[in-house]
Amino acid sequence: MGKRGAADGDAAKRSAAKPGATKLAPHRGVATATKAGREGLPPRTAAARSSAPRTGRSRSDERGRAGDQAEEGGLGAMARRGLSECVGAFALTLVAAGAEVISAVAPGQLDHVSRAVAPGLLVMAFIYALGDASGAHFNPVVTLAFTVRRAFPPAWVPLYWGAQLAGAVGAALFLRLVLGDVGGLGTTVPKLGLGPALAFEIVLTWLLVTVVLGTADRYRLVGPNAALAVGATIALCGLFAGPVSDASMNPARSLGPALVSGRLGDVWVYLIGPATGALLAAGTTFLLHGRHDGDGQTEEAAMGEPDRRAAA
Known about the structure:
This protein has helices at 2-17, 28-39, 43-51, 59-71, 75-105, 112-134, 140-148, 157-179, 194-217, 219-222, 226-245, 251-261, 269-289, 297-303, 306-311. The protein is mainly alpha-helical.
C-alpha cells in the first residue's frame, strides 16, 4: 500500500507539472460542505442556496421596482392618498369649526388665542402623521398650488378635492349630530365686511401657500419639519386676522360647515380669496426660486409615497 500511494502521488505531481494540464474541480459535495462550514449552515441549506438561479437582482431592487409600479397607477396607493386627505380635512374642520361651536355652547371656555392656535397645532401634527401618505394637503388651494407648480399630477386633483370636501362635510355633520346646529356649525363669516374679508383671505392664503411651496422645494433640507413652519403660519394668521375674516385660508374648511348649516351667502369669499392667494403664491415661488429642480424631492413632498411604504 505504501508503494502504491507513493506512486499515485508522483503521478499527480507529474500531471500538475505538465503544461496545459487541467486542474480538476473538487467534488460538488465537498464544495457545498465547505461553504456550509464557513456560513454556519447545514449542508442541505448551503446546497439549496448555491443551486438557486442567480438573477442579479437584490430584494431591495424588487421592492423599489414594486414601488415604481405602484406609483404608475396602483389603486391601493391612490385609495390611501384619498383616505389620508379625507381624514386630514375632517380633523382640521373638526378642530377649527368645532372651536366656534364649543364657544357657542360653552361661552367663555375658549378664548381667541385657543381658537387661533388649535388648527395650526392640528395641521402640524397631521403633517408628521400623514405626510408620507398623501403629502398632507388637507386644503384644495394647496393642491391647486402644487399643480400649478408642476409638482402634482393634474389627474389627481379631483380625487384630492373630493376627499377634502368629504372630510369637511363629515366634520360638520358630526358637530351637528353631537352638539346641535349652534354657532353656525363654525361657518366662516366676514366680521368687518366682504371687502376686508376677501382682501385678507387673499393675503393670508398667499402667506400660507408661499411657506408650503418654499418648504416643499427645500424638502431635502427641511424634510418633515416643514410641519413646524406650516403649523406656525396657520396659527399666526389666525391670531392677527381672525377678527377680520375668521382666517379660513381653506375652501373645504369653509364650504363643509356652510353646506351642512345652509349658510352659503358669503361662502364665495372663502372660495375666490384662497384660490387667488394660492395662485399668487405659486407665482411668487417661481419668481424667487425658479422651477423646481425635478430631483423628486418636491414631488415627494407634494404627493407623499404610500406605495413605497407598502412595498417595503
